[in-house]
Amino acid sequence: MSATSSIPVLSWKECMPDADFVIKIIDDKNIPSRMKIPHRNIGYKVALLLEGKMSGNVDFRKYEVEGPAVLFSSPEQVDHLTGHKNIKMIHIAFSKDYLLNDVRTTLSCWECMFSQIVIPVINNKDFNELKTYASLMQQEFAELRHQKDLVIRNLLNAFLITAARLGTCKTKLAVMNSSQNKILQQFRTLVDDHFLSKTQVAEYADMIYITPGHLNDTIKMVTGKTAKQLIDEKRITEAKRLLFWGELNAKQIAAHLNFEDDAYFNRFFKKHTGQTPLLFQRNSL
Predict the structure, then answer these.
(1) Quick one: 124 and 203 in the same domain?
(2) CA angle 67-117-5, nearest 5°?
(3) What is the 3 state secondary structure string of 100-145?
(4) What confidence tens digit (pLDDT) does each residue in 240-273 have?
(5) Are residues 151 and 100 in the same domain?
(6) 74-98: per-residue pLDDT in tens?
(7) Which of 100, 112, 278, 281 has its Cβ near the most Cβ atoms within 10 Å?
(8) CATH at residue 229
(9) Strand ranges, E, within 1-138
(10) What CATH number should be reported for the domain holding residue 140?
(11) Residue 172 forms part of a structural domain
């Protein structure tokens, strides 16, 4: 049994295979039924909840929100809508590669912004700006126009920077040179792709063609954490997701995450979380 088989991965590409960006209005009548089962997404999602109420879970956190609000979801997070009433929202989905290259350089707190899940609106001016950008993206998306993709990407960049202003993680404009940004993005992409099989900093440094020391120094300077910490956090987060949402026991998850044995996985998990995998799973029920 595959460790991820019990958590389906959903994609708008099933109905729009060539699209890397989708924007649509969703309400109680047309909300996709697949959003009501625990699932992962292939890309990023941002929803402007204009009105109504929603509740659900993202990874291990429950939320209840009333519009106006902004909701975020990242690739690999497990998303589950459990309730909605009188909702109207603008739903935006885009692939990892869709953004212009400099947006994640501009937002030093990119991961923090998308990990917030829900941001209730307390600044109507910024929310109105978001609605304006969303409306312009809808117009471009709906019509065949010259260089529409470039226009949408620029609007999306402006949209995300404005959304960051609403957040609580104190997102700031980053001062990051192009070399640092390139290393960070390469490292994050490689960790996303290989964290199941590669767990050592040296393995990633080899793939980026730099020394482990240079990789660690760069990652620490930009994120405040070591490269090894980010690798371990990725493994722990995936373990938590499978324990919380999956139908697997700790031994099966240890095998999926390529730990030598379940005893080592238990020690690793407890070191990073303060509790055993079994206790975490029991507390999640």
Answers:
(1) no
(2) 120
(3) CCCHHHHECCHHHHHHCCEEECCCHHHHHHHHHHHHHHHHHHHCCC
(4) 999 988 778 889 999 999 998 899 999 999 999 9
(5) yes
(6) 888 889 999 999 999 999 999 877 8
(7) 281
(8) 1.10.10.60
(9) 9-10, 21-27, 39-41, 44-58, 61-66, 69-73, 78-94, 118-120
(10) 2.60.120.280
(11) no
Q: What is the DSSP letter of 214?
A: H
Are the C-beta atoms of residues 233 and 198 closer than 8 Å to each other? no
Q: Does any domain span residue 171?
A: no
10 Å CB burial of residue 144 (0-12, 13-18, 19+) is exposed
Q: What is the pTM of this model?
A: 0.81
Gap between the Cα atoms of 222 and 32, Å rounded: 38
Cα-based distances in Å from 202 to 199, 220, 224: 9, 15, 19
Range of the domain at 221: 178-284
In a domain, 235, yes or no: yes
Angle at which helices 178-194 and 201-208 cross, to 10°: 120
Position 32 in a domain: yes
Supply 205's token pair. 């440094």
